[in-house]
Specification:
Number of strands: 8
Radius of gyration: 16 Å
Structural class: alpha/beta
Shape: globular
Bound molecules: phosphoenolpyruvate, manganese (II) ion
Number of helices: 10
Strand order of the largest sheet: 1-2-3-4-5-6-7-8
Helix content: 25-40%
């Protein structure tokens, strides 16, 4: 994936819904992104790490087939989040092409290690989101756990850092942290996720532009056919258009 990202002219774009909701929703957004030539890879959450227990926690295993079939039908690789070894087994069985670990997983070295061990001997790209707290070493450590398990194709995703009641962002960018990561690991592509940084679609363009000005290699954007009615992260998703 690092090679593909670097050989792509312009930023590498990963797009798709926060969560897979229905078969029709997944196929519709994937078709639309492909028709408009807007994505190099597709994302969709199958298992969602939600802050409060009564939120939609992801459609689960059944959605893996929707995602993989939709990706295959347009010839684009598909990515989903894995947060334990059971997710890894199911995602690999279903044929998911790229895995990512979320910000709430990267904070926990035991969980990252469990996922890395479950992937030992598997050749698949892994994207590691920054931890929710602004800790460069923890982010690097998560990346290294995958590398030590033999996964040589690791990409970093910058999705911002938690703070209490920020007036502008859902997660503050702290640009110096991904910049430092790039300095420490120039071999690793860094993709910016302006959807989770901003939490609001109106701010996505300015944050995406800033990331590109800083020479980030790509963007991950949440896109939904009908963002206002999304089952998760409604205020930050865009239509493919
Ligand atoms: C997501 O990508 O939908 C997600 C849950 O992101 P994060 O881990 O960055 O919160
Ligand atoms: Mn989301």
């Amino acid at each position: 994936m690092n090679e593909k990202i670097r050989s792509t002219s312009g930023p590498f774009l990963i797009a798709g819904p926060c969560s897979a909701e229905t078969e029709e929703q997944v196929h519709s957004v994937v078709r639309d992104l492909a028709d408009r030539n807007l994505a190099h890879a597709i994302r969709a959450g199958i298992w969602k790490p939600r802050t409060r227990p009564d939120s939609f926690e992801g459609i689960g295993e059944v959605g893996l087939k929707w995602l993989v079939d939709a990706g295959r039908s347009v010839g684009l690789p598909v990515a989903t989040e894995v947060a334990n070894k059971h997710h890894v087994e199911l995602a690999l069985q279903a044929g998911v092409d790229i895995l990512w670990v979320g910000a709430r997983t990267t904070v926990n070295p035991f969980t990252v290690q469990e996922i890395a061990d479950a992937l030992s001997g598997v050749r698949i790209p892994v994207m590691v989101k920054n931890p929710v707290n602004p800790d460069l070493e923890l982010w690097l450590g998560g990346i290294e756990r995958f590398e030590k398990a033999g996964l040589s194709d690791v990409v970093a995703i910058h999705r911002g850092f938690s703070v209490y009641k920020h007036p502008k962002y859902r997660n503050v960018p702290n640009w110096e942290i991904p910049i430092a990561l790039k300095e420490r690991r120039p071999d690793i592509a860094v993709i910016c996720d302006p959807s989770h940084i901003t939490g609001k679609r109106e701010l996505i363009a300015e944050v995406a532009q800033k990331a590109l000005d800083l020479n980030f290699e790509g963007l991950m954007m949440e896109t939904h056919p009908n963002p206002e009615n999304a089952w998760s992260d409604a205020s930050q998703q865009l239509t493919p258009e």
